[in-house]
Amino acid sequence: MSETEYDPDVTIDARGSTCPGPLMDLIGKVKEADPGTVIELQTSDSGSKGDVPEWLDEAGHDLLEVVEQDDYWSMYVETN
Amino acid sequence: MTETIAIVGGGTGGTVLANRLADELKPELESGDVEVILVSDGEDHVYKPTFLYVPFGKKTVDDAKRPLADLVDRRIDIRNDRVEAIDTDDKRLTLRDGRPLRYDYLTLGLGAQLVPDELDGLAEGGHHFYGPEGAQRLRDELADFTEGHLVLSVIGTPHMCPAAPVEFVLMADAWFRERGLREDVEITYTYPIQRAHAIQNIADWASAAFEERDINLETFFNADEVDPDEGVLHSMEGKELDYDLLVGIPPHHGSDLVVDAGLSEDGWVDVDKHTLEATEAEDVYALGDIADVPTSKAGSVAHYEAGVVADRLASHVRGETPTATYQGKTICFIEAGMDEATFVDFEYGTQPTVRKPSKPVHWAKLGYNESYWLTARGLL
Ligand SMILES: Cc1cc2nc3c(=O)[nH]c(=O)nc-3n(C[C@H](O)[C@H](O)[C@H](O)COP(=O)(O)OP(=O)(O)OC[C@H]3O[C@@H](n4cnc5c(N)ncnc54)[C@H](O)[C@@H]3O)c2cc1C
Fold first, then answer.
1. Same structural domain, B43 and B168
2. Which domains does chain A have, with CATH numbers?
3. What average pLDDT values come out for chain B (380 residues) when binned by 10 residues?
4. ipTM of the complex
5. Chain A CB contacts of B192 below 8 Å
6. Residues A55, B193: C-beta atoms closer than 8 Å
7. In this structure, are B41 and B77 located in the same domain?
8. Separation of alpha carbons B362 and B61, rounded Å
9. Rounded to the nearest 10 degrees, how much is the dihedral formed by the CA atoms of B348, B352, B358, B362?
C-alpha cells in the first residue's frame, strides 16, 4: 500500500463499479459534506482519473492527491 | 418435504421468473416437491415503459397495467401482500400483518423506489413521467404548455431506463414541432456528468441529435435545489436555470428492507454480477432494478436475468450444480422523435453502437410494448 499524508473523514469504496458510478458516489458524498471535509474515493475505473478532476474543477473543490494502490486508485478530495 | 421458492415483487423480473419456473419445474410443481410463491404488493402488474408515452397523449396510465393473475401461470401461488422484513439466517419473510413466510430459496425483484423528497423543492416544483400519477399530471401540464422554457433534469444516478430522459426531450421536440409551437418553446436537458449519457456512444449520438434539433445540453449539472416560487433550478456546480416547466427525473433508491436484512449498505442488493446470488446471504438471488450489477436498470435486463435465475433455481432444486450465468445482456429501444427510433444492445464491458434512427425501429418498439404482455407470460 502506498502512503499518503491525508487522513480522510470519509472513505468511499467504489472499486468494481464502472463509469459514472465512482464519480456519482463522490458527488453524493460531497453534497452531504461540510466544507473542509477530506474524502478518499477508491476507484478501479481508470476513467475516474479524468472525470473526477474535471468535475472538481467545475464544482470548485480540490483534488489533494491521487495515490496508486495495488489494483485501484485512492483519490483524495477536499470540499470547499 | 416441499421446497419453497419465494419471489418478492411481481414486476418484470419477478413475473418472468415465476413463469419460467412454472415451465422448467413443471413435474416438481405438479408432484408437490416444490412450490413457488410470488409475493407482490398489489393486484396488478405494471409495465413502466408505457409511462413515457402518457405525457404526449399516446397512451393512458391504465394501458400500463394488467392483473398479475392473468399473466402468471396457475401453478404459481400469487400472494397480494407486502414483505416487511427479510431474515436470511432463519430463511423467513415477515408479511404485512406480521405473518411469517418460510423459504428455501428467495429471489428479490423489488424494483426501484422514487424519492423526489430527497431534493428540496422538487416535489412542489417539478414533474416527472416515472410513475402513473406523475405521468398523468405531466400530460395535463404539457397539454396547456404553449410557450416557455422546458427543462428536463436528470437528478442523480442510477435511475430506471437511462435512455428515457433522452427519449423524452427528443419526443417533446417533435411533438411541439408537430403542433407548430416549437419556436415558442425552449428545451434544455441536464445531466450530472461531463456528457449527455453514462455510455459514451449514446452520449455522442444524443449530443449530435440535440444540436441538430436545437435542444440545449447542460453537463456536469447536479441539481441541488428547486425554487418553485421563482421557477429556478440550482446546481451544486453553482449554475442556475430558469424554467417554466421542470421535468425532473427523481432520485431513486433501492429498498430499506435490503439494508435491514444486511444485503447491502445502500439498498441495492450486492450480488455476483454473473450468478446474481447475493454476496451477503445464502440461497438469496436478486434480479431487475434492485440488483446492483454494472448495467442499466432496464426491463430487458430484468427479463434476461430472470432466465438465468430460473435455470439456477431449477438446478438447485434438482440437486445439480447451477451453471447458468448472466453476461450483462441489455437491449434498449430509444425513441428519437415521435415516429423514429434506434436501438442498442450490449453486454458487460462492451460499448453499444447506435444505429441511425428509423421508422421500422419505432414501430418495433411500439410492437414490443404491445407484445410485452406475452413476454411477461414467458411466451416470448
Ligand atoms: C418511464 C420509464 C420508461 C422505461 N422504459 C424502458 C424501456 O424502454 N426498456 C426497458 O428495458 N426498460 C424500461 N424501463 C425500466 C423498466 O421498467 C424497469 O427496469 C423494470 O420494470 C424493472 O423490473 P423489476 O422487476 O426489477 O421491477 P418492477 O417492474 O419495478 O417491479 C417491482 C415489483 O416489486 C413490488 N414490490 C416492491 N417492494 C415490495 C415489497 N416489499 N413486498 C412486495 N412487493 C414489493 C412492486 O409492487 C412491483 O410490483 C422504463 C422505466 C420507466 C420508469
1. no
2. 10-78 (3.30.110.40)
3. 96 98 98 98 97 97 97 97 98 96 98 96 98 98 98 94 97 98 98 94 96 98 97 97 98 97 96 98 98 94 98 97 97 95 93 93 92 86
4. 0.90
5. 20, 24, 27
6. yes
7. yes
8. 20
9. 20
Q: Is B222 on the interface with A (CB under 8 A)?
A: yes
Residue B150 lies in a domain: yes
Q: Please tell me whether residues B103 and B175 are part of one structural domain.
A: no
pLDDT tens profile A28-58 = 999 989 999 999 999 999 889 999 999 999 9
Cα gap B90→B87, rounded to integer Å? 6
Q: Give pTM, 2 decimals.
A: 0.96
CATH, residue B191: 3.50.50.60
CA of B299 to the centre of ligand 1 (A): 7
Residue B338 placed within a domain:
no
Residues sharing a CB contact under 8 Å with residue B7, sequence separation 6 or more, in sequence order: B14, B17, B18, B36, B37, B38, B39, B106, B107, B109
Same domain (yes/no): B212, B246:
yes
Residues B233, B137, single domain; the answer is yes
- Asked whether residue B41 falls in the same domain as residue B76, the answer is yes
Q: Whose CA is nearest to atom 37 of ligand 1?
A: B110
- Domain range for B53 is 3-112+254-329
The whole-angstrom distance between A65's CA and the closest CA on chain B is 21
Separation between Cα atoms, residue B374 and residue B47, nearest integer Å: 12
B237 touching A, CB under 8 A? yes
* B110 close to ligand 1 (CB < 6 Angstrom): yes
Q: How far apart are CA B32 and CA B317, in angstroms?
A: 12
A-interface mutation test, from B119, B191, B222, most A Cβ less than 10 A away = B222
CB B11 near ligand 1, within 6 Å: yes
Residues B246 and B182 grouped into a single domain: yes
Partner-chain residue, chosen from B193, B238, B294, that has the shortest CB–CB distance to A23: B193
Residue B137 and residue B117: Cα distance in Å, rounded? 17
Please count the structural domains in chain B. Answer: 2
A19 annotated active-site: yes
